[in-house]
TrEMBL record:
This is LysR substrate-binding domain-containing protein. SUPFAM superfamilies: Periplasmic binding protein-like II. The keyword Transcription applies. Residues 3-201 form the LysR substrate-binding domain.
Length: 203
């Protein structure tokens, strides 16, 4: 019996992006059954390092020896506000405006802090964090009821933007985005199930 493929994903990727790929992969019937683990980025990184996962899709990765990492997709980061917010009619948000805002923080360990440090430069100024919530879902609910604004991955609010409960505002040039990564042990580079699944993700 063919071993099951163990796939890990950080929370935002696993909840908002990965599921259609898993469904299509299952429908193709070209590999073993897939077991998916969704957790925080640091936890998924630890599971991968400990050999508990065959493949991981994450928001950041420390380049460790013995692992192969490749870009999966570049995901825009957007400012979300409720429809009645003073910024809701903006077509984009510039760096200076963003740097003076108080933002709702989401799940720790996603790499957003490092991304903002690069975007605003070593000395800032930086946005402040008005509250620290534990997940993107909690952030979205807080923004919906008018507790503030936040920065999230664009894919995580696609449904809310479509139904009008949230407004997503792109960050003006040079923009904000995350390079999402697919990582697997170098020892599995020629392993057919891993090769097949990674190829399906990145095609």
């Amino acid at each position: 019996m063919e071993a099951r493929l163990r796939v890990g994903a950080s929370s935002n990727i696993g909840i908002y992006m990965l599921q259609p790929y898993i469904r299509r992969y299952k429908e193709l019937g070209v590999g073993p059954e897939v077991d998916v683990v969704i957790d925080s980025n640091p936890t998924i990184a630890r599971h991968l390092s400990d050999g508990e996962l065959d493949v991981a899709i994450m928001e950041w990765w420390h380049d460790l020896p013995g692992f192969h990492a490749q870009a999966w997709r570049n995901e825009p980061v957007v400012l979300i506000v409720p429809p009645g917010h003073p910024l809701a009619r903006r077509t984009d948000i510039d760096r200076d405006t963003l740097s003076n805002m108080a933002l709702i923080g989401g799940e720790p360990g996603t790499g957003t802090g490092r991304l903002l440090a690069t975007y605003f430069g070593e000395h800032g100024p930086f946005p402040t964090v008005s509250m620290q919530l534990g997940s993107t879902e909690a952030v979205k609910q807080a923004v919906k009821v008018g507790l503030g604004a936040s920065l999230v991955l664009e894919s995580s609010v696609r449904e809310e933007v479509q139904n009008g409960s949230l407004v997503a505002i792109p960050v003006s040039e040079p923009g904000l985005s995350k390079e999402l990564m697919v990582i697997y042990p170098s020892s599995l580079d020629k392993h057919r199930p891993v090769y097949s699944f990674v190829g399906h993700l990145c095609e």
